[in-house]
TrEMBL record:
Residues 52-192 form the Glutamine amidotransferase domain. CDD domains: GATase1_1. It holds the Pfam family GATase. One of its GO terms (cellular component) is cytosol. Keywords: Glutamine amidotransferase. The lineage of its organism: Bacteria, Bacillati, Actinomycetota, Actinomycetes, Propionibacteriales. The keyword S-adenosyl-L-methionine does not apply. Signal peptide: none annotated. The keyword tRNA processing does not apply. This is Glutamine amidotransferase. InterPro entries: ChyE-like, GATASE. It comes from Nocardioides panacis.
Amino acid sequence: MKPFLLLGTRDEDAAADNEYDAFLGFTGLDESSLHRVRLERRPLGPVDLDAWSGIFLGGGPFNASDPPAAKSPVQQRVEGELAALLDAVVARDFPFLGACYGIGVIGSHQGGSVDATYSEPIGRVPVTLTGAGRADGLLADLSDTFEAFVGHKEAIRDLPPGAVHLASSPGCPVQAFRVGRNVYATQFHPELDIHGLCTRIDVYKHAGYFEPDQAESVKEMARAGRVFEPPRMLRTFVQRYAVATSPYGGGVRA
């Protein structure tokens, strides 16, 4: 099987490693079949799409809607690399799933509006599939309404032209959309379970998602829910898009 590629942007090792472990666990892949590139640490370099089964883009501290002057040189580099990659991904309708930060990156790339209008604090929310979402193969194993973990300072305000709206929540109208047939974006975190969420609450305690002294109460609120359906998307993504072994070996050349 050709490997899958996970692109990360989290500078903190605890959060970055937890994210990678979660993608490994919920996709059923091992380290040889899920290659990680931490974009905050090094340039992506050319990506040969023929070498990969599909691409995941995780969340992180960057906001696509930040004003250019507020973006660090690293964020500007990362966003330039992702824009170039998405040019190729969308043109080819290549399998791609971006979560949280990923929805802002894909939404901006495709001409949608991304801002702080529908931000959500860290916690669990009910996500409801649209008619198109219920009919979509990637979401087929999910209930019409399910709980998911969120936590974001920006969100899609206006859907990109031509995008297919797949899911919403009471406080955030666009929780998922699709471009073409194979390019997906979610606002919620399909890779998060309660352990992963608690790790991120500790790591991002002072990042402005909540008051630092509320960390334990946020964890208790999360533990009171039943968040178990979103990770099914990750295994389904792998099952749908895994293809025969690439003759080229790797797909990222630093």
